[in-house]
Amino acid sequence: MAFHQAEHSLLVIPGPIEVSDDVLFANATPSQSHMSKSFTETFGQAIKMFRQVLVTERGQPFIVAGSGTLGWDMVASNLIESGDEALVLHSGYFGQSFADCLEAYGAKVTQLKAPVGQCPSREQIAEALTTTNYKLITVTHVDTSTGVLSNAQMVSEVVHQISPDTLVILDGVCSVGSEEIRMDEWSLDVVMCASQKGLGVPPGLSLVCASERAVHFVEARKTKINSYFASWLNWLPVMRGYEQGKPVYFATPPVQLICALHASLKEITSRPIAERWTKNKQASKDFKDFVTDELGLKQVPNDPAFAANGMTAIYFPEGISASDIVPRLLECGIVVAGGLHKEIKDKYFRIGHMGLTAIDTTTRRDLEKVKDALRHVFSAAGYVNKNISK
Fold it and tell me: Which residues are annotated as modified residue N6-(pyridoxal phosphate)lysine in the UniProt record (predicted)?
C-alpha cells in the first residue's frame, strides 16, 4: 500500500519535525497486544538500534511513554539522593529547567551559567569541579532556546580528569540523531532524548540510555527511589525482557509509537551514523552561510564552533520584529519558532533542520523553500542587506 501524508505547511521548528511517510504509516499500525510476538520483536529491535545511534555497546536503553522532560525525572529520581551536589552547565533556558527538576528531588544545584550565545569553558568547568564533590554534572548538548552546541566530549574529559566519580549526564533532546555522540568513547553515563526531534518520530516517547556505572549505582543505592513510573528498577526487567524476546509487563508501552520509532531507527541505522552527522553538518553550514552572507543576519551563538547543526537561531535586524516575519512565513507555508530565552525573547527566531529536512535533499527541497520564503518576507518587510546592496 502506497501511503502519502496530507499536504501541510512545512514544519521547521526545532521539534517536532517533519516525519516521513513510512514512519507516519507505521504509527498507524493496527492494534496489537503489547505482549505479542510481533510487537516483542519490534520493541527489542528498536532497543538495539537505539544503541547504534548513540554508538554504545554497553549502554542500557529505556524507551518509555513520555516527553524529553521525563528523561530529567529519570535522571533526578534514580541518581539523586537528598543532599547530593549537582553541577548544571547552563547555556540557555533548558539548563535552568534541568536544575529545577534536580532540586525537586533534593539535589543541591550549582549552575555554571554562560552569557547568551555561549557555553561554559573548559577552564570554568575545571575550576568548578575542584571546589565541590559533585554527584553528577549535566550538559545540555544543544540548548533549543539559543542553538548553542556544547562540547560534550570535552566536558567528559575534564570531569574524568578532575572528578572521575562524578556522573556525566547529557541532555540530548535536541541533538540525538543530528549531532555526533559517542556514548562509550566519551564515557557518558546518561544520554537522554525524545522522539520528536532528530529521531524523526511523532512526540510521545522519552528515550534514555544509561551506562553500566549509572545502572549499577541505581541497583546498589540504599535509599528509596522517589518515583514509581520513572524508576529504572521497574523498567529494567521490561527493557531487558523485550530485548531478549520475552515481554515483561510494568506499564503498557505505546505500541504504535514504538512501531514508528522502529521504522525511523531502521532507516537511520541502514547507513553508518557518521554519514548522518556529516549530512547534518553540511546542511547546517549551507543554511547558516545563507543567513550570514546573503541575508546579513546575526546568529545567537557567538561563534560558529559552538553552533548547533540541527537548528539555527537568528536575530532580527534593527527595525524588524517577529510580527513582521513569522506571520508572513506562515502565509508562505513555512512554520518557524519564535524566541524562547527570556533575555532575548523578542529579538530572534529559530529554524530547525533535523531529520528529513537535513538528510533528504534528493526528493525534498525543505531548506531551499525556507530560503526562498525568507528572501521574500524580509524583502516584504522592507529589509535590505546593506552589505550586498551596492
Answer: 197
99 in a structural domain: yes
List, for residues 207-263, the tens digit of each pLDDT value.
999 999 999 999 999 899 999 999 999 999 999 999 999 999 999 999 999 999 999
DSSP letters along 239-269, please?
HHHHHTT----SS---HHHHHHHHHHHHHHT
Q: Does pTM top 0.90 for this prediction?
A: yes
Range of the domain at 297: 273-380
What residues are designated binding site for substrate? 350
Binding residue positions: 350
Residues of the chain with pLDDT > 90: what percent? 97
| SS3 (DSSP) at 334 | strand
The answer on 220 and 151 residing in a single domain is: yes
For residue 113, give the nearest of 165, 162, 148, 84 by alpha carbon: 148
Pairwise CA distance, residues 134 & 79, whole Å: 12
